[in-house]
Amino acid sequence: MSHPVLEGVRDVLPSIRERADEAERLRVVPEASVKELDEVGFFRLLQPRRHGGHEADPVDYYTAVREIAAACGSTGWMASVVGVHPWQVALFDASAQEAVWGEDERTRLSSSYAPTGRADVVDGGFRLTGRWSFSSGADHCQWVLLGGLVHDATGAVVDFRTFLLPRADYQIADVWHTVGLAGTGSNDIVVEDAFVPAAFTLSMSETGQCKGPGQAVNDAELYRLPFHSVFTATITAPMIGMAQGAYDEHVALQRQRVRAAYAGERASLDPFAAVRVARAASEIDAAWGQLVGNLREEQAFVARGEQIPLRVRLKARRDQVIGSQRALDAIDLLFEASGGRALARGTRLERAWRDAHAGRVHAANDPERALQMFGAHELGHQIDPGMY
Length: 388
Fold this sequence. Notes:
By secondary structure, the protein is α+β, with helices and mostly antiparallel strands. It has helices spanning 4-18, 20-26, 31-39, 58-71, 73-89, 94-101, 204-207, 227-256, 271-303, 310-336, 348-360, 367-378, and strands at residues 109-122, 125-135, 143-151, 157-166, 171-173, 187-197, 201-203, 258-259, 265-266. Helix content is 49%, strand content 17%.
């Protein structure tokens, strides 16, 4: 039985679909769409119950993401990225969680994890300075999670941490002008010498071990899953949704399409068109099936109180990057089979084609790195578990 929030999400999909053009024009998801998703509880699916969240099954979360992205790729991408952050905040010290949600349980966060900022160790915490790119949905958020390299008094790098900052401590630079995912508002974050208390940070080495101080108060199995499994699936799920939206539109159009260049032949009678539809459907199903299957396998280890084997974590990343490619391949197959009408602006297929190609360049979708890690492990080489 699906989570009640999923039913609420499905109720607002028509209006989200109608605002897809508006999202691209504004270069940010319309406030009305964010409000609708907030009101049905989407952004709190992975949030701890002690702070008004649902602590939902992550498969329900990714299912909601997939369906939102099928309606509007930009909205699905933004919602996926913003909606996953409560999961990580749940790993922070209880004082940090209270700062975020104590006064408003609907507080949202954006992020940029690449360690492009510099953090210096000071008494009680760190001084953070830098500029971070691609913070999707930042305009709709009141806090941000940023990656940074930590330097000691000698200037040596001693750690890689995630830093949690309130809106007063950073600026948003409007730089998002793109051909795909244009409505995600993935702007830059600028921080100038902000103090971040130690309790408002997490070491990525600890995170990589599926640990965090917040587990002392949030003991649900949800919060013992691997960071890199949860967060990279957050990138692939909307791409699968984009492919599903493109598929649905393509099939509907091909049922009605008459091919003038072939003496008025009905496109639905073309056996080669049918083969492309079958291949695209298989790619989408395979991508989704592996994403869910790998997550369920990891959940089973957590439920038994066992450490998730490194091979299982590497397999999840292997299938995640291939899943993103499968979604992209499905869209390309459909686009090529749609004729000249596929070039028209404003169709779901055309937008999905641009959005998915934009999503493919995200660092989480770098296939060679993830595949090399899995293959090297299979061949007996030492792999850093903190990376996956």
